[in-house]
Amino acid sequence: MVVLLTSKPVDEHDLEQLVGRVFFKAIDLLGGLHKLAEYKTLTWLPSLARAAFAIVLREEYLKTEEEIAEIVGLTRNTVRNILRADPNAAMFKIEHMDELTKEEKKELRVHTAGGVAKLAYKLVKEGNEAQTLLEFCREISAKAVQVCEAPWAYTVLKHTKGLKYPVETPEALKEKLSGITIKGLSAEEVAENLTYPIKNPAQLLHEIKEFLQMKEV
């Protein structure tokens, strides 16, 4: 039996949202805007944005090279190079940014942009969002729980400002929560007994809530 794969209609809102998340994650992988500015490579951003569009259109909407080229405004050959890019090779090059030539710093090559965007897309789909977005969510959540009179949740979010996600072990969290208590329990004890990794602020609150319920406090 022959199975035909057909593309689905593009939802402009969903497309914009996912491309934005992939774009911010790609910037994270490159070390953040500060590092890009330090290396005088902010001119890479348009290439990253186009690569993020191409990858999402292919992976989410099964668009052909011709269709992606028309939507994003690239040649078919450029789209093909983005889609065929190797994420590992791209990240190896980025990790050796110090060795890039002046010309390489001026313009991000298609293969490299495609590789970074591919890796960023994979991480976002696995739930590893960009640190910038997570920090914004943490601030919004802190304001929300403050209004809802959830003092321990507000305290946790307030003290975890700048915490890097995903949190793989208790140490970083224990350092942030050092000296405070959560419903009468040492925050360090709570942190020690959570399930890791923790991918975002919402999961952090959920894990703490489950631990408190288990302790019946």
Summary of the model, kept short:
65% of the residues lie in helices and 2% in strands. It is an all-alpha fold. β1 (181-182) and β2 form a beta hairpin.
Report on this model:
This is Bacterio-opsin activator. InterPro entries: CHP03879_regulat_dom_put. This protein has 217 residues and is mainly α. 65% of the residues lie in helices and 2% in strands. The protein is elongated. It starts with 11 loop residues before the first helix and ends with a helix. 31% of the residues are buried. The model has no long low-confidence stretch (mean pLDDT 89).
- Provide the low-confidence segments as ranges: none
**From the alpha-carbon coordinates, what is the Rg to the nearest angstrom?**
21 Å
- Count the E strands: 2
The description of the largest β-sheet is:
2 strands, antiparallel
| Helical content (DSSP H or I, runs of 4+) | 55-70%
Q: Counting H and I runs of at least 4 residues, what is the number of helices?
A: 13
Query: Ends: how far apart?
Result: 58 Å
What pattern of helices and strands is seen along the backbone? HHHHHHHHHHHEEHH
The helix-and-strand class reads mainly alpha
Overall pLDDT metric: 89
Shape: elongated
Give the strand content.
under 5%
> Strand order of the main beta sheet, please?
1-2
Protein name: Bacterio-opsin activator
Keywords:
217 residues, mainly alpha, two-stranded antiparallel sheet, 13 helices
Protein topology:
Elements: H1 12-29, H2 33-38, H3 45-61, H4 65-72, H5 76-83, H6 87-95, H7 102-106, H8 110-125, H9 131-147, H10 151-159, H11 170-176, E1 181-182, E2 185-186, H12 187-192, H13 201-215
Antiparallel strand pairs: 1-2
Helix pairs in contact: 1-3, 1-8, 3-4, 3-8, 4-5, 5-8, 6-8, 9-10
